[in-house]
Amino acid sequence: MTEYEICWIPLPKTNLEQHFQTVERPRRRNSRVGAAPKAFDPQPPRAFSYSVRQPDANKESKRAAALEAVQNVESGMTVGLGTGSTAALAIEELGRLQNTGALQCDYCATSYQSMQLAREAGLRVFPVESFDSLDVSIDGADEVDPALNLIKGGGAAHTLEKIVHSLSSKFVCVIDGSKLVTTLGERTPVPLEILPQAINVVRHELDRLGAREVSLRMALRKDGPVITDHGNFVLDVRFDSFHAEAMEKELNSISGVVENGIFARCRPTFVIVGESSGVRRLEG
Predict the structure, then answer these.
(1) Is 60 marked active-site?
(2) Does a structural domain hold residue 29?
(3) Which residue out of 3, 92, 93, 161 is catalytically annotated?
């Protein structure tokens, strides 16, 4: 499974982009009850950005971390499966163990992609809502800070990932060393899954919170924006700095936001870091 990394590329203006322009700090306008809505008057716009496929130079480090994470799974457990390139390697190993008879577990997946991978690997996958709790869940991350706060959502699966990891007694995060940061947001924007109809409301509120850049995530191999497994849009948002737990709560209070990619209230139990020299374990 190929990882998605964020790459900022100017695009020509399409009809969709003209409708959803990236703007910085638009001025609020007061509306009178019963008055016709005023046209939005943006400042000079920035081009939208989208995600592109990149070669995975750290696959062996990720594999080492994934294999170590699988050691936390025992027969009879209920297991949550994350989404992304490192989680895919864990799914592959779990399938190998299941097919040799070394493991017999029940699984739930955080995306259609992970569900398909798990079924192809021979795992027994059930809907998330079938479980009241999970024994363990395994997933990757786009960024991890020293307090084990995460940014997730590069694969647009963070809503269901947060639900699954909240159900789990042990959330094991698996990464390679390139995902470690001093402060969240250093390299990765914060993803927001939003209702398409709420895009203008959400953007105004993000401006109030001091967002430096807001981009509608565009799709590859289809025209228009990325559509999540739940039928929603994804905004990628950059801030100069933020307090992880406070920003997670604030973003989720915006009308039309389904879930954001900050994992501060749902942090991993520990993080396994794969490196060229082996693996190490980080605990909060």
Answers:
(1) no
(2) no
(3) 161
